[in-house]
Amino acid sequence: MRFMKSFTLALLASVAVICAPAAAQQAAAPSGDAAEGKAFPAVLVGQVILPAATFVPAPADAPAALKTSGKFTNADRARIDAVGSVKGVSVLSNKAAPRETGLSLPFDGQPVQGFSGIIWEGGNRYWVLTDNGFGSKANSPDAMLTAHRLEMDFEKGRIDRRATIFLHDPDKKVPYPIVMEGTERRYLTGADFDIESLQKVGDSLWFGDEFGPFLIETDLEGKVKAVFETQADGKVVRSPDHPAVTTPSAPDGKVAFTAYRSKGFEGMALSPDKTKLYALLEGPLYDAAAGGKEQVDGKEVLRILEFDLGKREWTGRSWKYPLAQAGNAIGDFNMVDATHGLVIERDSLEGSPVSACAEGQPAANCFDKPAKFKRVYNVEFTPESAGGLVRKLGYIDLMAIKDPAGKAKQGTTEGVFDMPFFTIEDVVMVSPTRIVVGNDNNLPYSAGRAPQRNDDNEFVLLEVPDLLGAK
User: Fold this and answer.
1) Minimal CA–CA distance to 457: which of 160, 125, 145?
2) Listed residue (223, 118, 15, 216) closest to 435, CA to CA
3) How many whole angstroms separate alpha carbon 449 and alpha carbon 352?
4) Residue 296's closest CA among 385, 172, 200?
5) Are strands 38-40 and 391-397 parallel, antiparallel or unpaired?
6) What are phi and psi of 465, to 5 degrees?
7) Residue 4 has pLDDT above 60, yes or no
8) What is the tens place of the pLDDT at every residue in 142-162?
C-alpha cells in the first residue's frame, strides 16, 4: 500500500499515542493473544540496502511525459515541471512539526523504489516490483509500472539491480482507456493500475492490482497478456478507482462498490504446484447487510480469493484472514507449503521508539507516534477450511529482531534490530529456516528509520526456524 491513498491526518490523530519509554517499548514483547498464536524469535543474518535515491531512465521510446516523474504530486495536482523543486515531507509528520525527507520532486527519470512484492528464484536472484507511484491514481500518471530483477548477496552485504521491465499494452488487452492510450508502446502508469504483488508462472508474470482490483498477466518483458476482473461470492468486486465506477450525475446520487479505496490486492501467494493463486485483499470488503466492514466474531477480516491458473478463472473459494486489531493492513503474502503461508500485518505508524518525541512535544527531529505493530505471521488454510477463518499459528515481531552478531548496516540498538517503517511489503521463504523481508519506502514520503531522511529500500535475511516450523 502507498501512503496517501486512504491515510489521513485525521485517522492518524485517532491512533492512541505511544507513551511508554522508548527503550522499554522496543524491548517489550507484543501482547499475548491465543488467537494470534505464539510469538517466535527472529535473528538477523544479513542486511542489504538500495539507497532511496536510485533511479532508472525511461525507455528510449517512451513519451516525453515519462522522462520525468512526480510532476502532479502537489495538493491541487497542478503540474510542476522543475525537477527537484518541491521538498518531500513524511506523510506521517505531525502538522505542527513536518519532517522533511531530504528528497524533492519531480524526479529526473523513474524511481527504483517502493518494493511491494517479491519472488525468490533461487541463489541470490529475486524479482521485486515497484508499486503504482506516488500514492494515488490522481497523482501518478507519469510513474511507470515496473518490475526489477535483483541480485542480493546477504553474506557480502551487496544488492545489484540486474534488469528492469516496464509494463506495456501494445496489443490493447486492457479493456479500459489508459493514460498512454494514443501511443504505440502504450506504457502503463500508476494512473492505470496500482500493482502491489507478483508471481511468476512459466513464461508469465502475474500482478495483483489495488485499483480494480484486477489480476494482470504479462509476459516476462512486461507485455500485457490479459486482465481479469475480481469475483468474491459470485459477484464482481470493485473499488472506487475501478474504471467502471463513475461519479453520480447529481449531488444526491449514489455509487456502489464493495472494496474500499487502496484496499484491493496487496499480497498474492502461489501454490507450490503452481496451479493456484491466492490473492489477499489489504482491507475488509464492505458488508452491506451489516452496513460496515466485513467482520467475524467482532474482528475485521480480509478475503483470500483463489484463482485457478489452468482454467484462468476464480474458483469461488475464499478464506478470511482475521486482523489482530481494527485498522491494521497486510503487506505481503507468500506460501511456505501447500497449506501454510507467510503474511505481513502492520499498523499505519512509522519510526523507531528509540527516537520517539517526548510526550506531547512533537518535533521535526523525532517520531511523534512511532511504529508499534509490525509482524510476520505463519497462517494455515486448507481446502476443507474454505469459507472460514485462516488459523494464525504464530508470528515474529519485526520491531524486536535479535542482532547478536551486529549484522545490521543500520537499524540496531543495543543488540535489537527493528523495521519501523510505515509499509513493510515483501516477505518470502528462502530455506526451511530463513525468510527475506523488505520495506516499501514510499519515495519521497516515508522516513521511519531516521526522522528526517527518506527510508532506503532495505532487505533483511532472518533466521526463523520456529516460525516456519509452526503447525
Assistant:
1) 160
2) 118
3) 7
4) 385
5) parallel
6) -60, -35
7) no
8) 999 999 999 999 999 999 999
For residue 234, the tally of other CB atoms under 10 A from its CB is 7
pLDDT-above-90 percentage for the chain: 90
Written as nine digits, the cell of 444 is 519521497
Q: Kindly list the strands in the beta sheet with 235-237, ordered across the sheet, starting from the edge strand earlier in the chain.
A: 195-201, 204-209, 214-219, 224-232, 235-237
From 209, 44, 190, select the one nearest 117 (Cα to Cα).
209
CA pair distance 451, 93, nearest whole angstrom:
9
| Burial class of residue 63 (count of CB atoms within 10 Å of its CB; 0-12, 13-18, 19+) | middle
| Cα distance between residue 376 and residue 396, in whole Å | 5
- What residue has cell string 487502496? 262
Amino acid letter, 158: R
> In angstroms, rounded to a whole number, what is the distance separating the alpha carbons of residues 373 and 451?
18
CA angle in degrees (0–180, nearest 5) for 272-378-206: 40
Cα 168 from Cα 185, distance rounded (Å): 6
Whole-angstrom distance, CA of residue 346 vs CA of residue 315: 29
Rounded to the nearest 5 degrees, what angle is found at the Cα of 361, between the Cα atoms of 358 and 363?
100
Residue type, 319: W
CA distance 66 to 144: 7
pLDDT number for residue 176: 97
At 34, the pLDDT band (50, 70, 90 cuts) reads: confident
Asked if residues 82 and 106 have their Cβ atoms less than 8 Å apart, the reply is yes
- Nearest alpha carbon to residue 38 among 391, 418, 340, 411: 391
Instruction: Record the pTM.
Output: 0.93
Cell numbers of 300, please?
475485521
Q: Residue 29 gets which letter from DSSP?
A: P
| Alpha helices, DSSP H, located in 205-258 | none
pLDDT per position as a tens digit, 371-396? 999 999 999 999 999 999 999 999 99
Q: Which residues contact 64 (CB under 8 A, 6 or more apart)?
A: none
CB within 8 A of 124, min separation 6: which ones?
A: 151, 152, 153
Task: Compute the distance between CA of residue 221 and CA of residue 345 in angstroms, rounded to an integer.
Answer: 31
Kindly tell me if the per-residue pLDDT of 15 is higher than 50: no
Q: What is the pLDDT of residue 5?
A: 45
Q: Give the mean pLDDT of 176-196.
A: 97
Cell of residue 394, nine digits: 504464530
